[in-house]
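A note from the maintainers: we've had questions about how concatenated examples are separated. There is no special marker in the raw files; a new sequence line simply starts the next protein. For clarity in this README we add a label.
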Amino acid sequence: MSANVARIAARMAKLDASGIRKVFDLAAKMTDPINLSIGQPDFDVPAPVKAQAIAAIQSGFNKYTVTQGAAGLREAIAAACADEFGWTDGRPYLVTSGVSGALVLAYLVLVEPGDEVILLDPYFVMYEHLANLCGGKTVPVDTYPDFSPDPARIEAAITDRTRMLVVNSPCNPSGRVYGDDVLAAIADVAARHDLLVISDEIYNLFCYDQPFASLASHCDNTLLMRSFSKSYAMTGWRLGWCTGPAAIIEKMTMLQQYSFVCAPSVAQAAGVAAMQCDMSAQRDAYRHKRDMVYDALAEPFGLIKPGGAFYAFVPAPEGETGTEFVERAIAANVLIIPGNVFSRRDTHFRISYATSDEKLARGLDILAGLAR
């Protein structure tokens, strides 16, 4: 193979998977590990959703849809937003290949070399790598120790190169849920600086101690992103949606035409059925798992109680980095993720409690034992 054929674009050097790769290299040596690392539901797709997908396949709904998404699904999303937000302004909706697909489109449309993207640290790993891929710069705003964002810190991070702020509530990796008052204060900052905000609300159905609140209720200049992946266990179906300023959605739709083309047609048909499903039983089950995690890890680790999603971001024992503790946990056959994958700090580790109660209990016993 010639050197020219093998040459990799320089932009790929800006992506770094080393943190996660190191964990899974260690995990490859494990036998039947207690896996508390995977960020996907352990329940199955609801039966009505499966039935609708099968019906769609059998009826021949297997071809491309229009790029912006099938009309039936976009109408269902618009109706849901009218109920939640009171929106009846005919705003555009774009059906995407998950929130990940929406994020890729948004970053490519919005971020140019040298632009700054403000992230609330800790943050979902994709936010930083997409900025790097676009030649942008991430500006982390520290939210430790309780993972509640300080609007004054966000405002202090804004410069003339700031392009947007990314907000994720309920948050991966911390499980923090932002209250309506905090979101209103962030919206005030955004309004003063004419700042675009991406609101990643992929875990909106998983709030345990307070009602879910959306930044889009307070800030018109918001790209709202939601997904069917976590809410309905449709992670492999690759289905999400986005709405926001019409000019941005128009360009994202154009870019989707030349990249993803459209979200999977069968998943779109099933998405309409998913939106009619009651997921309260699954939410209650995860509240119970969250309580198991907190009861087991609050005292030995000083864990702050997470309020949503299905993650806990746990401080490593005193005198030990997150990476060092993860290595000990993996040696004890428990797979978790070091916090520096999601943060500029290496002081915590992330666990996912999206697993069986029995397996979770065994893993928590081991982790608590390692702390003591």
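[label: protein 2]
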Amino acid sequence: MSLGQRIQDARKSAGMSLDDLASLTSIRSGLLREMENNNFVACGGDTYARGHLRSIALKIDVDPLELVNMYNEEHSSEHRAIHDLLVENNVATMPVERKGISMKTLAIVSVSALALAGVAQIVISNSKTTVIPEKIVVTPTVEVSAPPTASASPSAVASPSISAPEIVPNTDGVKIVISAARGNASIEFVVDGKSQGKNKIFQGETKTFSGTKSISFYLSNAGDMDLTLNGRQLAPLGVHNQEVRKTFRAGE
């Protein structure tokens, strides 16, 4: 038996019409009809739905806990792990990073190539000096020719290459600031694939979540929340009591 059928049977057993129950509970008869049809979307979220069920139970002589437990099993999204919900929406999979050749590797290769070129120049220069006839008078030009110049070449090139591999750290990341500007909400965040647990945020409170790769989250009342992404104010993600799931990744 569904929750809606259970409410309808208990109401009829109590000898009440929908209008009678609406008058006793201050809940619209149209909404009561939807609930008896096992449709709780118009209740405005889990918190309001449970409140309506407790009020109804007291008037139709049913244990409120029985109706609330049935609602949790059939309709509540808060009793499912946020990671399972995100997987269903393909937002929990971390993007695969492409690996490229690092600047440090390129710099080492460049320095090695220049060093080999310098050694080759020294060998060639030394081989040329050995075939000079002894009777030729060595001039100052010959004395300072290839060997000093060749040996200085690798040193001159290697000096700036040592500082070349400096890598600028990647400062990209994801930082979300959520502010309960107009009401309360249930929230659940997954930062870099790790769940931060279920929380409540009350009107006037602000919470901050930071990650290096991605942040996925669930809000039960998106219309009353203000969100800032990396210092940039976001447009409203929904309306009052609307449930929203969203993922932001570094670099987006």
